[in-house]
Amino acid sequence: MKNFTLTKPLDFRKTLTTAALFACTLTLPLLSYAKETTYICYISLPQNPTQTVTASSASEAAEKVKKDIADTAKRIYGMTSVDVSCIEEK
């Protein structure tokens, strides 16, 4: 005969562990997503264009804009590097 007093708590603990891992897996991406804010980035090109970007920091926003604008800056203006400065939108 099985010892039910021992197997039930073990099954319950296994279920709780699985549920906790699942909850953490879902929560962590949501926490990092919640920290993202909107930045206005000023690009050092003729006519001083701006671009609005969502990122977790000003430096990440600047990198996103640089990647986005690199081909255009090289093709149209012949520039291989572009300065970008970003501030948080209020």
Report on this model:
- This protein is an alpha+beta fold and about 90 residues long.
- The protein has 2 domains: about 1-35; about 35-90.
- The chain is about 55% helix and about 20% strand.
- It has 2 helices and 3 strands.
- It has helices at about 5-35, 60-75; strands at about 35-45, 50-55, 85-90.
- Strands 2-1-3 form a 3-stranded antiparallel sheet, covered by helices on one side.
- β1 and β2 (about 50-55) form a beta hairpin.
- The longest helix has about 30 residues, at about 5-35.
- It is elongated.
- The mean pLDDT is about 80.
List keywords for this structure.
3 strands, alpha+beta, single chain, 3-stranded antiparallel β-sheet, elongated, about 90 residues, 2 helices, about 20% strand
Compact description:
With 90 residues, the chain is of the alpha+beta class. The chain has helices at 4-34, 58-77, and strands at residues 37-43, 50-55, 84-88.
Write the layout of secondary structure elements.
Elements lengths: L3 H31 L2 E7 L6 E6 L2 H20 L6 E5 L2
Antiparallel strand pairs: 1-2, 1-3
Q: Helical content, roughly?
A: 55-70%
Characterize the overall form: elongated
Task: Compute the separation of the termini in Å.
Answer: 68 Å
Order of helices and strands: HEEHE
Number of helices: 2
> Nearest-angstrom radius of gyration?
25 Å
